[in-house]
Amino acid sequence: MRSLTHGEVSFKRMCHLIKKYINAAQDYKYHITVGTDSQNYDITKVVVVVAVWRVGSGGIFFYDVRKVTKITNIRQKLFYETSLSIEMAQKLSSYLEINNSNCDIAIHIDAGNDGPSSSVIPEIVGWVKGSGFNCNTKPDSYAASSIANKYSK
């Protein structure tokens, strides 16, 4: 994982930094979001983002860049992105032991009701919710649609 503030960090170190960030101001509500986006080149560049929003007071984020064989099918690409987000959210949930009322984990999907990705949204949202996480799509999916999108280019 990478951080603009902390540089290269391991998953374990990222979790430590997230816990430290939350513990530094426990009176706030926190939203942890995981989002993935990808761009096609001669390969597919995939970026997974973990963003921690301290509601009313900014936030921090971490991202991981992967390069995989080019994925040209939009449906396959969205399912791949979602699988990476669910996997990361499950690991975070276990490691951070998120079970208090001031913090939750949601998955952001880079798909909206307009365009070629709209037909797959019900399946993806059902999959995410069935995995135990809240789900946001465009225009409310900033971790995927804004942060991951920026670093995938």
TrEMBL record:
Protein name in the entry: Uncharacterized protein
Species assigned in the record: Clostridium oryzae
Annotated InterPro entries: Phage_KVP40_Orf299
Upper classification of the organism: Bacteria, Bacillati, Bacillota, Clostridia, Eubacteriales
